[in-house]
């Protein structure tokens, strides 16, 4: 069986991001910075870019403190960040997520904070968390070409596919 995840970070089919991390080199603004808040996940998806053997131990409170200290150091060097993206494993499993987002906001280094979640642990994305975010991404890793084909057929049959496409097309125009 051919297991290709066309939407995963490690897929050849996914549009690659520019290699230059700075959106503006005159003031050293980092375009986007991903911060892993936990390596735990409530799924074991084949084809997931995070599925790496021999993972390091889960991020501890000490690890979070090191992230915060590093962000203060970057700010002290005059750097800023367009968007900080909080990821995991499953980022919603991080028990200190609300406090962590508050700490990042207090540093004042980033224009936006985004959370990436699979959406299957809603108790980890409380109202408090949602109010602190600028964007929320629900990751929907698809493990097989067959599943992706069936999903697209379902969307097309229900009319959702054309609604999504038209909305995206109009927004881009």
Automatic annotation (TrEMBL):
Its cofactor is [4Fe-4S] cluster. It comes from the Bacteria. SUPFAM superfamilies: Radical SAM enzymes. Residues 1-22 are annotated as: Disordered. GO terms for molecular function: catalytic activity; iron-sulfur cluster binding; metal ion binding. Keywords: Iron, Iron-sulfur, Metal-binding, S-adenosyl-L-methionine. Residues 1-10 have a biased composition (Polar residues). InterPro entries: Aldolase_TIM, rSAM, rSAM_sf. CDD domains: Radical_SAM (cd01335). This is Molybdenum cofactor biosynthesis protein A, probable. It comes from Oleispira antarctica RB-8. The gene is moaA.
